[in-house]
Write a structure and sequence with these properties.
The protein is of the alpha/beta class. 42% of the residues lie in helices and 14% in strands. It contains 16 helices and 15 strands. The strands form 4 sheets. A 7-stranded mixed β-sheet has the order 2-8-7-6-5-3-4, with helices on both faces. The two termini are 16 Å apart.
Length: 438
């Protein structure tokens, strides 16, 4: 057996010191900590694939607009709880340009990143009808959203969509919706961590069932238009970003500045609520919040209680970025396409050394290359693989932490440097030699 790049005793000691008893359940932060400490102790460079942080410079249009807003004195003023009017207008235009649906500016509400958007959405949806107290996740998904529900004491159900794509999705969803306790359905599209992209026919099923069972669909578009198999970069022209909004009025779209515009540090996003849902009166919400409709409960109660609004200067940045994209002056897709190029190269290296892609298809089509992908290795559980890869200076998180029932890891492409492809090739050759597949 060949010597591993990182001394096994060092990795095992760090894991033990952190009190991690099951590496399959290690959090992103814990994996990151082990990798950082091992790198520091050994001086061996780690190939870090665990954190979903943008690895590109922030969009220049946003930076310039935010600096100007600050220089003009905006920092002394509280933002309007409904949001900066120009941002609301540009968000509405952006949705029309790249999703192809109409949402009034009124329903486009700035939030402190999609994280706050989901928190406020969960609060609003879970209080809309006392009989509906449970959120349904189409997993795998972003683990922190479940933590949000844990914090607020809201129940949730979840299923791994791996075996329920296409025609199988309807029956699986109905098995939960028939109980009558589901208030919202949540998924990301493209998906974190699997990078699957639900097809229009699947979104049609979700939309029709949302209308039939009167539940709200929360569509997390954190990785907006990042299905690089399609040209989604021309404003006001198809093809558009796939969305459930074409098939129901019961929807909220969560659009983030973090990945599409690499503006993660300023915590800015927009929650776009359908016109009908925004103005709809739910008796339980009306009784609790002075007769207000859904959209105003979301903004003037939930967001107001959480943070009194969203960073004023960051709203100017988001407005400028959305406007530049919608006007065709800024091709944000071109900027972020590097993630797809990285994924393609990384997949080739892993697969050459007997790894396989866990979530490998969108029905009959190979999965897109993008911000994330998933890998497995024959004969290894998620925890075993993640732990073993640490000896080779490669860090990634286990799929079990995302609600997946598959054995494997999530790989993030955002921090991969050009010099690391050869490094990964070299290390995975040793990995394959040390872990022969029968």
């Amino acid at each position: 057996m060949k010597q591993t790049p990182i001394d096994k005793q060092i990795v095992d000691g760090l894991i033990e010191n952190l009190g991690i008893t099951d590496f399959a359940k290690a959090t992103i932060r814990e994996v990151k900590q082990v990798a950082a400490k091992a790198e520091q102790e050994t001086g061996v460079e780690f190939i870090k694939m665990e954190m979903g942080i943008p690895g590109l410079p922030a969009a220049e249009a946003g930076v310039k607009a935010q600096i100007k807003a600050l220089q003009d004195g905006i920092a002394h003023s509280y933002p309007d709880i409904q949001g900066y009017p120009e941002l609301k207008k540009e968000a509405s235009r952006f949705v029309k340009a790249f999703i192809g649906v109409d949402i009034a500016p009124e329903g486009c509400v700035p939030v402190s990143g999609s994280m706050q958007g989901t928190f406020a959405s969960f609060l609003t949806c879970s209080q809309a009808d006392k009989k509906k107290d449970t959120v349904l996740f189409i997993d795998p998904g972003f683990p922190v959203q479940k933590m949000q529900l844990q914090v607020m004491g809201v129940k949730y159900e979840t299923f791994d969509v791996y075996d329920y794509r296409g025609d199988k999705l309807k029956g699986k969803l109905e098995s939960y919706l028939d109980k009558g306790n589901i208030c919202a359905i949540v998924y990301s599209n493209p998906n974190n961590p699997a990078w699957i992209c639900l097809r229009e026919e699947e979104l049609n099923v979700i939309g029709e069932l949302a209308t039939q069972y009167d539940v709200v669909v929360m569509e997390d578009l954190a990785y907006f238009a990042m299905d690089f198999r399609k040209n989604l970069s021309t404003p006001f022209e198809p093809p558009y970003q796939a969305t459930v909004a074409r098939y129901t009025d019961n929807y909220m779209l969560l659009i983030s500045g973090s990945k599409a515009f690499s503006y993660a540090g300023e915590r800015i996003g927009v929650t776009c609520i359908s016109d009908k849902l925004f103005h709809r009166h739910f008796p339980d919400l009306a009784n609790r919040y002075e007769g207000l409709p859904f959209g105003l409960v979301f903004s003037t109660r939930m967001l107001y209680a959480l943070s009194s609004g969203t960073s004023h200067s960051a709203q100017y940045a988001m407005a400028a970025m959305l406007k530049a994209a919608t006007d065709g002056e800024y091709d944000f897709r071109k900027e972020i396409s590097v993630y797809g190029e990285r994924a393609h190269k990384l997949k080739e290296i892993f697969c050459r050394h007997k790894f396989y892609i866990v979530y490998d298809k969108d029905l009959d089509e190979p999965i897109a290359d993008g911000f994330y992908f998933t890998i497995g290795y024959p004969g290894m559980t998620s925890g075993e693989l993640a732990h073993e890869l640490m000896y080779y200076g490669v860090s990634a998180i286990c799929l079990i932490t995302t609600g997946s029932h598959q054995e494997g890891l999530r790989v993030c492409t955002s921090f991969i440097n050009d010099n690391q492809y050869d490094l990964l090739e070299e290390r995975m050759a040793i990995f394959e030699e040390n872990n022969p597949v029968e």
